[in-house]
Amino acid sequence: MDLLGLKTTDLEQEVLRIYGDLKKLATREDAPPCVARNAKKALACLWQATNDLDLSFEQLRDLGV
Amino acid sequence: MDSPYWNPKNEKMPREELRALQLLKLRRMCEWAASECDFHRRKFEKAKFKAEQLRTLDDLRRIPIMTRAEWMECQAEKPLFGDLVTAPREHAIRYHLTSGTSGRQPLRVLDSMKDWEWIAEMWCYGFWGFGVRPSDTVFFAFSYGSFIGFWGAHYCCEKLGALVLPSGNMTTENRVKQIVEMEATTVCATPTYALRMAQTAREMGIDLPSSRVNKVIVSGEPAGSIPAVKRMLEQQWGAKCGDTAGMTEIGTIMIFECAHQPGGTHIIEDNFIEEVVNPKSMEAVGYGEEGERVVTSFGRGFIPLLRYRTGDLVMRMPWNKCTCGRTFDWYDGGIRGRTDDMKLIRGTNVYPRAVESIVRECDEIDEFQIVLWRKDNVQDEITVKIEVKPQHAARTAELLPRLGKDLAAAHEGLRFNVEAVAHGTLPRFELKAKRLKDEREYK
């Protein structure tokens, strides 16, 4: 379901899944800078898609994003 | 997928769903602000407001209005950023300044990585909506300084895959040359500067209408939605002219002109709530009535902006008065003016009161006058005429450049002409002074 309670499409589910994976990656303490910083950058970008598609609306301060 | 919309899901969303989305985001932003932002927590407590009171969108009016003066005050009390920010500066990746022309203290803004991406995202709604595509070559006539200006638009174009041509501190002649040489298809500038480039091109013997430029996207001045100016731009460039408007306090644009050009600019309503109110009573006004914009943004988590009074005058129109298919309402004529006396000179806000506060710091000056004029009918200029007290006449030569420098420093580097005139020649006033003379005309 999206934020309005509407059924999500396959594409939207894929976006949400990758967004969740990036959040996990962004919290890993064993990641070298090249992974950690690029994961955060990618997460900042994918946040836009989840916001645009009304899939998620949250702040990412605790992840440093 | 070549959609005319950047985000088809929300740009065509039924109004009832759009309002439900706004309410949900509003609640979350208020919860965030109450939890993480001392500035808003203080205001909420004073107004006895809690996020859970937001049951319908009409409850928005329970949220206390936020003003620029309050923002400045909190920055003055807790330099540099006040208590409006929700994280220490180490969490930010970007710093920008407003012009600071409503007083000498500018507003300082910080953005996180996510917020900065969002700033570019809002420009994507506008640029894509006006027809910019990955195949475009986009030229930015922009100085890339601490003024936020077209920064977000630059990153928007990188994001949507266009070829970006940043021009930094190039001369106007070199900019024109590069636009032609690199076969730019889209040019971004203030309306005034777009006209100046067109004039320079003519002087250089370059025929811009025969160039590859087919879109001129303007921002920074209300002139972009003035029909006469738009006509001049479209004729002189041989291109469609699209208007956008934003503000440093938001960090990005909140309105854009779509390719259908209804005579105004769509509000990005899935990311903002825009209220239009009577500036005296603060009561909401209806469609087709002029009023002041009050904006709530869902984008910046670093600096929550809730019911911020903008001073911009607008006239809201219903979405279905545009044929583009968006369900976003729009502002007829874009930003129509200001509730205060602010003047826009080459994209920079100039407040006579702020100029006066700087001029008045020079003890040598007796009287002054601000003259706004248009050079060659294209470029806006500002001249401050001063009368030096007779006893300080010998210091005039030293005073003129110093004052010019101080004025520029307080106005994003805007060049001020400062002229000394004979003592006793400027008007004197008995009651309310009128020291600003606007000699510009849109022909």
The proportion of strand residues of chain A reads under 5%
Distance between the termini of chain A: 25 Å
What number of structural domains do the residues of chain A give?
A: 1
What helical percentage do the residues of chain B reach? 25-40%
pLDDT < 50 runs, ≥5 residues of chain B: none
Give the structural class of chain B.
alpha/beta
Provide a count of the helices of chain B: 11
Radius of gyration of chain B: 22 Å
Q: How would you characterize the overall build of this protein?
A:
- Chain A has one domain (10-63).
- Chain A has helices spanning 10-27, 33-52.
- The model of chain A has no long low-confidence stretch (mean pLDDT 97).
- By secondary structure, chain A is an all-alpha fold.
- Chain A is elongated, with a radius of gyration of 12 Å.
- Chain A has 2 helices and no strands.
- Chain B is α/β, with parallel strands linked by helices.
- Chain B has 2 domains: 1-339, Rossmann fold, CATH 3.40.50; 348-438, ANL, C-terminal domain (GMP Synthetase, Chain A, domain 3, 2-Layer Sandwich).
- In chain B, the strands form 4 sheets. In chain B, strands 3, 4, 5, 6, 7, 8, 9, 10, 11, 12, 13 and 14 form a 12-stranded mixed β-sheet that branches. Chain B has a 4-stranded mixed β-sheet with strand order 19-18-17-20.
- In chain B, a hairpin with a 7-residue loop joins β8 and β9.
- In chain B, α5 packs across α6.
- The longest helix of chain B has 22 residues, at 15-36.
- Chain B is globular and about 65 Å long.
- Chain B starts with 7 loop residues before the first helix and ends in a 5-residue tail after the last strand.
- Classes of the chains: A mainly alpha (65), B alpha/beta (443).
- Chain A binds chain B through residues 3-4, 40-41, 43-45, 47-48, 51-54, 57-61, 64-65, and chain B through 6-7, 9-10, 17, 20-21, 24-25, 28, 32, 36, 86-87, 91, 112-114, 116-118, 121, 270-271, 298, 301.
